[in-house]
UniProtKB/TrEMBL annotation:
The chain crosses the membrane at residues 186-209, 221-240, 246-266. The lineage of its organism: Eukaryota, Fungi, Dikarya, Basidiomycota, Agaricomycotina. It is a multi-pass membrane protein. Keywords: Endoplasmic reticulum, Membrane, Signal, Transmembrane, Transmembrane helix. Pathway: Protein modification; protein glycosylation. It comes from Somion occarium. Residues 176-268 form the Ribophorin II C-terminal domain. Belongs to the SWP1 family. It comes from the Eukaryota. Its main location: endoplasmic reticulum. This is Ribophorin II.
Length: 277
């Protein structure tokens, strides 16, 4: 199926090229004091900016202009019109909408006695760049740099009671314990001998007594031998992975079965076949 998307974009591009151009007629600014005394009043030029404007703490700035369709020479009402106050040092900006009548006439007033909250914070000696931006669906957009504006220095923002909670805290420095030191080899060897000594004694007694295998595997003796092997396995497991609390818990449970199995083994009557030399 033939796609209409390329044709749509082509028609959109043609419409953009043929869109009417907007222009400003009779742009003018006026600076008034708190007593309505006119301090400065000049027309504005689209191609050349005037000398920077300066407003006092109680002065007011009035801006008037008319938006025209350049081709037809008639006033039009664009869809969006606003002033952009931009601080090149801090990068902050503020947007103020401008109302435009159906005939294209616009009037804007900035009273420093009640400045809008959207004006960015100002520093002493640093001007704001003021731009006029106009957008329309049927006209090409218009952007004009009007003038530079010096405003009174902003007061510091009031401190919030919880402001200190959001300040960065000093970094936390962890002090790690030194690495574990291994004991001398002689101490490790002596400890190993002490641990293995009971097994040496047990093997020696086992060879002297020589109990019969059927007797050791009898139902009354085998559980006790299994519990003893379980104790040894628990100690090895503790050395490898378990913690002391787990060993005490498992050992306490295992000791109950070992005591019962040992009592049963001692109560069993049987004969040991003792070998003779």
């Amino acid at each position: 199926m033939y796609s209409l998307r390329p044709l749509f974009w082509l028609l959109l591009a043609v419409a953009a090229v043929q869109a009417s151009v907007l222009s400003l007629q009779s742009p003018r600014f006026t600076i008034l004091s708190s007593s309505a005394e006119q301090l400065r009043s000049e027309p504005l030029s689209v191609t050349q900016k005037p000398a920077p404007l300066t407003l006092g703490a109680s002065d007011a700035l009035k801006l008037t202009f008319q938006v025209l369709d350049k081709d037809e020479g008639k006033g039009v009402q664009p869809h969006q019109t606003f002033l952009r106050f931009y601080d090149e040092i801090s990068g902050e900006e503020g947007i103020q909408p401008v109302r435009v009548t159906s005939g294209g006439k616009a009037k804007f007033e900035l009273n420093m006695a009640r400045p809008p909250a959207s004006i960015p914070p100002t520093s002493a000696g640093i001007p704001l760049k003021v731009e006029l931006i106009i957008g329309s669906f049927v006209h090409s957009p218009l952007k004009v740099e009007l003038f530079e504006l010096f405003l009174p220095e902003s007061h510091p923002a009031p401190q919030h009671p919880d402001e200190a909670s959001f300040h960065p805290l000093p970094p936390i420095h962890h002090t790690f314990r030194p690495e574990q030191k291994l004991p001398p080899r002689i101490i490790s060897a002596v400890s190993a001998v002490l641990v293995l000594a009971p097994w040496v004694v047990l093997v020696g007694l086992w060879g002297h007594i020589r109990p019969s295998v059927p007797y050791l595997l009898s139902p009354s003796i085998l559980p006790f031998i299994v519990t003893l092997g379980a104790f040894e396995t628990l100690l090895v497991w503790y050395w490898v992975d378990l913690k002391l609390g787990q060993v005490l818990l498992y050992g306490g449970i295992l000791s109950v079965f070992a005591a019962l199995a040992g009592r049963q083994a001692l109560a069993t009557k049987g004969d040991l076949r003792v070998g003779r030399k």
